[in-house]
Amino acid sequence: MAEIVITTMAERPEVTPYLGDFWNVWPRFMLNDLIADALLWRATADFADQCLIATENDELVAHARSIAFAFGDDDRTELPAGGWDQVLQ
């Protein structure tokens, strides 16, 4: 059985063109959100060290995107009034 290898997008930027192959697995609301549609793609470029990919036999099998956002400390105990959209903006 082949091993699944987890790396960051920063370590494997050459797989970026293949991320579009996974749009069909995203929740529908993510595909219909104007802010997410406009900005989420930038996560792999702007936060490549926080976005993960999984490869098996050097083939892309999964990816995860992340955007740094401070939450849960004394200064920020809840999401901003604009929610996810405001975080992305």
Outline of the structure:
The protein is of the alpha+beta class and 89 residues long. The protein has helices at 28-31, 34-39, 43-46, 83-88, and strands at residues 4-8, 52-56, 59-64. The protein has one domain.
How would the blueprint of this fold be written?
Layout: E1 4-8, H1 28-31, H2 34-39, H3 43-46, E2 52-56, E3 59-64, H4 83-88
Antiparallel strand pairs: 1-2, 2-3
What structural keywords apply?
89 residues; alpha+beta; three-stranded antiparallel β-sheet; 3 strands; 22% helix; globular
Q: How many strand elements?
A: 3
Major sheet: 3 strands, antiparallel
Instruction: Give the overall shape, derived from the CA principal axes.
Output: globular
Oligomer: single chain
| Number of separate helices | 4
Q: Spell the H/E element sequence.
A: EHHHEEH
| Through-space gap between termini | 43 Å
The gyration radius over C-alpha positions equals 15 Å
Report the sheet-strand fraction: 15-25%
What is the mean pLDDT? 83
What spatial order of strands do you see in the largest sheet? 1-2-3
Low-confidence stretches: none
Task: Please state the structural category.
Answer: alpha+beta
The tally of structural domains comes to 1
